[in-house]
Amino acid sequence: MEKVTLRVFRGDIHGGHMVSYEVPVQPSMVVLDAIHYIQQHIDPTLACRWNCKAAKCGSCSAEIDGKPRLMCKTRVDQFPSGVITVGPMRTFPLIKDLVTDVSWNYRVAAKIPPLQPKPEVAGKPFRMQQADVDRIQEFRKCIECFLCQDVCHILREHNRQDAFFGPRQMVRIAALDMHPMDNLNRREQLVGEAGVGMCNITKCCTEVCPEHIHITDNAIIPLKERVADDYFDPVTRILRRIGVIQHEQKQPMSSVPQSTTQIMSKSPRPGK
Ligand code: SF4
Ligand code: SF4
Ligand code: FES
């Protein structure tokens, strides 16, 4: 393949259209290289966000041939037709061309309290089982590309940003809730404003994750199980009532002081 045709979305919140560009193909070329070629040789006003070109910063998220992917991790030669469509993530408000406003994700993240160490371990080195380390290590691989948020139908088709934090934030909460040193009861937030019950385990988020995090199997489903045990399992409730099993003695969410980040989270979400 000597040349490829890139059909790139050009526009802003007032409207836009697809524009075709012919780009010469180089060995091992990725879509981000082709976008850079357009910027350098054809139209310097084409806007895209990128940083590392190594699939690690999460900046270059886009929809390539309709699928959420990283531009720097998508090789041009995997499209034998020679035509590649590149558009912005549709779930987030458009700024310009391929650049979207993903700030809503950061405001949601600010609503999730950080690790609250148990009093007996606060200020000391944590000593943890390797199995516990391995379990939460997977979640720490997240590069905040928000491709999972982009593909999730609850946010994308149903616009339920008011009721669901989205898969990326489920991964964040799982990393904290499964941390053996965390002392905060996160279940109330999970069933409440985080909306874990909204997820119907379609696994679309897992399919697009460039870090191959098992978002549904390892984060969302275990979180749902924990919530179900606490709130909906009648046997567990009876056993708790008669004292056969004890409630986890964790700090309630309401005990966390309102931080600067929580104040930030109250700023309004820009319109789509
Ligand atoms: S599994 Fe849940 S969070 Fe993931 S895309 Fe489907 S509905 Fe959204
Ligand atoms: S969980 Fe995966 S898809 Fe979602 S933001 Fe993190 S790295 Fe991206
Ligand atoms: S440029 Fe950093 S992930 Fe693509």
Automatic annotation (TrEMBL):
Involved pathway(s): Carbohydrate metabolism; tricarboxylic acid cycle
Enzyme Commission identifier(s): 1.3.99.1
NCBIfam families: dhsB, PRK12386.1
Required cofactor names: [4Fe-4S] cluster; [3Fe-4S] cluster; [2Fe-2S] cluster
Keyword 4Fe-4S in record: yes
Family statement drawn from the similarity comment of this UniProt entry: Belongs to the succinate dehydrogenase/fumarate reductase iron-sulfur protein family.
Record-annotated 2Fe-2S ferredoxin-type domain positions: 2-90
Superkingdom field: Bacteria
A Pfam cross-reference name: Fer4_8
Any one GO CC term of the record: plasma membrane
BP-aspect Gene Ontology terms: respiratory electron transport chain; tricarboxylic acid cycle
Keywords: 2Fe-2S, 4Fe-4S, Iron, Iron-sulfur, Metal-binding, Oxidoreductase
GO function term, MF aspect, one: 2 iron, 2 sulfur cluster binding
Biased composition (Polar residues): 251-265
Annotated spans, Disordered: 249-272
PROSITE patterns associated with the record: 2FE2S_FER_1, 2FE2S_FER_2
InterPro entries on file: 2Fe-2S_ferredoxin-like_sf, 2Fe-2S_ferredoxin-type, 2Fe2S_fd_BS, 4Fe4S_Fe-S-bd, Beta-grasp_dom_sf, Helical_ferredxn, SDH/FRD_Iron-Sulfur, Succ_DH/fum_Rdtase_Fe-S
Protein name from the UniProt record: Succinate dehydrogenase subunit B
Transmembrane segments: none
Organism: Chthonomonas calidirosea (strain DSM 23976 / ICMP 18418 / T49)
